[in-house]
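Protein of interest.
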Amino acid sequence: MVKMIVGLGNPGDKYAHTKHNIGFDVLDVIAERLNLTFKRDKTFIADTAADFVNGEKIILVKPVTFMNESGKAVKPLLAYNGLISDDLVVIYDDLDMAVGKLRLRQKGSAGGHNGIKSIIAHLGSQEFKRVKVGIGRPKHGMSVVNHVLGRFDQEDAADAELGIVRAADAVETFIENHDFNQTGNQFNG
């Protein structure tokens, strides 16, 4: 079996460690644990890293298309690796959940997330696994754009870091047990 784990974010130092890049941050934790290094793949417009875990190939993907075009990288990579949407796990931010909370879902709508909208549009399917990491709602009248493109404040930094680590734990648990529902029961909330 092969699993493709995609973390959503925007490329470039300007966006590093912003709330919208929490998917990239989760993949960085997983890559560090597996001693993997990301390499830029210009053909697929993504930074990728791959290895075998318990005899199963795991492909980590950070699309560098910018968030709103994430599907441009995801669909060709799935096809190239002979995978279907069921082999895909996407990690991304959710502003409707408290900072650091997790929600694993088997499928669903985009819920207003432009990266997920792009993936759904390119795949023609909502049938892929998701790991949503809460980033909370904007505070003090801040716009949604400024909120998601900003970094976590001191008050939320520890919860955000815990969410990133727990999301990496959830993905690794799923890789080991192959049961997304069971993993969700363990990590949701």
